[in-house]
Structure formats: structure tokens, C-alpha cells
Amino acid sequence: MIKLLTALFLAQASAAGAKYGILLMAHGGEPAWDKEISTIAKSLDAQAPTEVALGMADDTEIQKAIFKLEKRKVGKIVAVPLFINSSSEVMDQTRFVLGIGKDPSAVLKEAMAHMPHIMMPASHHHMYSETRVSTKLPLVMTSALDADPAVLKVLIERAKSLSKDPKKETLVLVGHGPVDDKANADWLKTMGTLADSVKSKLSFRDAQVATIRDDSPPWVKEKAIKDLRALVEEANKNGGTSVVVPYLIARGGIETHITDALKDLDYAWDGKTLCPHPAIVKWAGEVAVKGAKMDNMRVYIMEGGTK
């Protein structure tokens, strides 16, 4: 499968024209996840020079990856965020770091005051910095996964593997969720679209979505967990059952927070996330090709300055 995808990528890359490099951005996690990122990057590297920056808007790691791409003589950088949604304080901060957005994320800065990042691996930290990366190369950033058909394909497979009697089952799609309330609403809207499509495809009785707001203030997180539990409890009434599918990129600890939130409730679950899956590799290659054809998006090069 990987060889087939690589051949497809090479054909697409040839059509894209000028040589470009891929900056693959992803959070870090368990060793198995970091290995999966390396596997994805290796496949993409056959399409175009690819370097990885692990972390959440970590300007130091992003800069290191950019330096590597410059040494590989690329003429343009295509940043591909292997993140769930394009709407979040992390994506806003990433845009700032890359010189695409004007201001750093005020939401992320405030969130750092209560975020338990010290207990997390360094590559999974949410980073706040007022430093932009440096490069003379044109740079663009693609969208995150959002509601791409690749995501739907994986979610259908994950839900189908858990389902036993869909007419009696409610699909419950659960994500991590951002700190920002508006961004969280965007996530829920995207998740709702995906969940409805899975419901239609597999004939579930109902479909619901929720985020656990893990990095938000305690009172926000507590309400989110209460709401999630209420969804599952309601789905389990009148002979119904819940099929809970994580809306997460990969295993990295967050999935255990979902099961902790649902302690003592009955539901089907296997914890399988979007990755690993060939559809996600294919998505990354396709958006990189599209990004290579986009005009430069980097307009801010110093604190508040523009080219």
C-alpha cells in the first residue's frame, strides 16, 4: 500500500512543478506514535524533501526543520499540519510562528497559566513564544485534517469495527477540543458533519459529538465531561448502547482521559485513533501537492514587521 501511495505522490509532485519541501508538523506522543510520524515522513520524502517538527507550535523545533529543508536546497516550504482541526489556539500560534499570522495566540498564552504541560512529554507541549522562524524561502501552510474525506473513511472503519447492532446504537464521537470557545464550536460543527455521515453510512440509531476540553480551565473541563457522560447515559436508555470513537490523531495519553471521563458507564470502545492509516498518509501527500501551487503566505518576518 505504501509503495502504491508513493508512486501516486511522485506523479502528483512532477505535475506540481518547482521543487518544494514539506514541513510536516505534528504533536509528539508515545514512541509508537513518533515512529508512525517517521513512517509518514519517509513516504512523503519520496514525493518531496520532508522534515518533521514535533510539538505544538514549537518555534525551536519548526526552525530546526526549516534549516534542514534549506540545506536540502528546496525552493519553497509547504507546511502540513497533521492536526485535527484548522481552528484552534495552537493553529493560530503556528501561523504566527511561521510568519503567516500577525499576532501570537492570546488564548494560548492565557491557557499556559493552568495547562499541566510540565507533566507532558516535551514534544507534546503547547508552546507559546513571540519568536518567529527565519527563512528567505516562500512558505505556505495547508489546512489541517478538518472534514476531509480521508477522516470520514477512517472513522467509518473505526465505528464499523465496534458496531454490533447499529439500529440500537448511538455513535459518540469524542475529541480533545481546543481552549478557545469559538474554536470549540467550530470543532463540534465539523465533528457533527462527520458523525452524521458515519451514521448515514452505517445506519446508526443516532450520532452525537463531544469534546473533553482537556486544556481548558477546570470548570470548563468539568462541564465538558458532565455533558459527555450525559450523552452516553442518554444513548444507553431504552435498550440502546453507545459506540464511542476517539476523534484523535493518534494515541498519546488523551484517549485514557476519555475513558476516565466515562468511568463506570457501558459503551463499546477500542481506542483506535485516525493514525495509523494509509488514508492519512495519502491526505498529507495530496495537500502538499496543492500547497506547492499556492502563493507565498509568509508576510511577517519580525515582531510586527512585514516584508
Strand portion: 5-15%
N-C termini distance: 43 Å
Q: Judging by the overall fold, what is the CATH architecture of the largest domain?
A: 3-Layer(aba) Sandwich
Overall helicity: 40-55%
- Helices and strands, in N-to-C order? HEHEHEHHEHEHEHEHH
The strand order across the widest sheet is 2-1-3-4
In the CATH hierarchy, the third-tier topology of the largest domain is known as Rossmann fold
For this structure, what is the CATH class of the largest domain?
Alpha Beta
Low-pLDDT segments: 2-17, 117-126, 303-307
Q: What shape does the CA trace take?
A: globular
Major beta sheet summary: 4 strands, parallel
Give a structural overview:
The protein is α/β, with parallel strands linked by helices and 307 residues long. It folds into 2 domains: 2-145 and 278-292, Rossmann fold (3-Layer(aba) Sandwich), CATH 3.40.50; 149-261, Rossmann fold, CATH 3.40.50. It contains 10 helices and 7 strands. The strands form 2 sheets. The chain has a 4-stranded parallel β-sheet with strand order 2-1-3-4, with helices on both faces. A 3-stranded parallel β-sheet has the order 6-5-7, sandwiched between helices. Helix 7 links the parallel strand 5 (169-175) and strand 6 (206-211). Helix 6 crosses helix 7. It is globular, with a radius of gyration of 20 Å.
Task: Put the structure in a nutshell.
The chain is α/β, with parallel strands linked by helices. The protein has helices spanning 2-16, 31-45, 59-71, 89-98, 106-111, 149-162, 181-202, 218-235, 254-261, 278-292, and strands at residues 21-26, 50-54, 77-81, 139-141, 169-175, 206-211, 241-247. The chain folds into two domains: 2-145 and 278-292, Rossmann fold (3-Layer(aba) Sandwich); 149-261, Rossmann fold.
